[in-house]
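worker-03 picked up job from queue 'complexes'. Input manifest follows; three sequence lines, order preserved.
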Amino acid sequence: MILHILNRPPSSSLAYRDALVAMGSEDRLLLIEDGVLGAMTAQVRHFQAIDGRLFALREDLNARGLLGQCDASVQVVDVDGFVTLTEEADKTVSWF
Amino acid sequence: MRYGLLVEGAPYSSQASHSALRFAAALIAKGHRLESVFFYHDGVYNAARLVAPPQDEPHLYDAWCSLNAEHGTRLQVCIAAALRRGLLDAREADRHGKAGHSVESPFELTGLGQLIDLGRAVDRLVTFAP
Amino acid sequence: MRSHLPVTGDLLVILRQVPHGSSWLREGLDAALVAAAFGQSVTLLFQSDGVLALARGQQSGPLGQKGTAATLDMLEMYDIESLHFDLEALERFGLTQQDLLLPAAGVDASSIPQLIAGHRLVLTF
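worker-03 finished. Artifact:
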């Protein structure tokens, strides 16, 4: 399993497409920084293809006032969870 | 596990430095070792010793220095990316005939080869980009 | 030319930016060259806008800003011969293999996960 990390929102950047195309069937995607906009219920459709393997960083959602808008299908992790995801992955790839 | 971080965002311009520092603290708290932070692209600005942020903002430069002092994490700056952006240690300043220098210990100007070595040496290399 | 996967190696450098507009492409190529000089086996993937790094006819920019076309010529000297590009991206710009200045292998989007899985370290620029 590879952990992909995305810090751009799907509303204004196509980086998410490059990330999704690059993901294997077991890989996970973590949304951080402005990437967490993609976790919002109104945006999460862009990540349909990886349902169940999408994560978002709690601190970055919270800082932007978006924790309440985060879709139930997204697994919200804090920074410790971010570290755990990297432990569990063979490697990480960042998309920006 | 042994970790390395690659930071490519300038401080106070993007969230990359904040994200990297937060991740660094968390991985160390979990018992991992952070071998080195390598600064590349605009990330080299993190090494600017003259930064003077407002007092009510996080002092990113000091936070990097604390990582080095408390955990022995190396702070390695790509020399080619740094020189282009006006980030010179005393030796480079002298070599280029500059009156002052903008980088000092614990930050070290090094070649990109150190990033490749880091990638080889650690279990996980995590990139924080702007 | 199509790529024969799986391609494996020490380092995969993914280049996603256009020449001249930012330093990403140059800095990504520099990382690849240094890794090769350190004896690592390096693969390049030109993805999305990055395929334009391979376009023929590139010139220097304003004020003589050096592009990256000359750096591409150095890849062979450093034994970086595993060059791949995103087929769909090339089509998106209406370009064909004949428009490229280097022999590179086209890869389908579905092959990119294998490329990534096959390398110990992946750096994106």
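worker-03 released lock.
The mean pLDDT of chain B is 98.
The interface with chain A takes residues 1, 3, 15-16, 19, 22-23, 25-27, 29-30, 32, 124-130 of chain B (CB under 8 Å).
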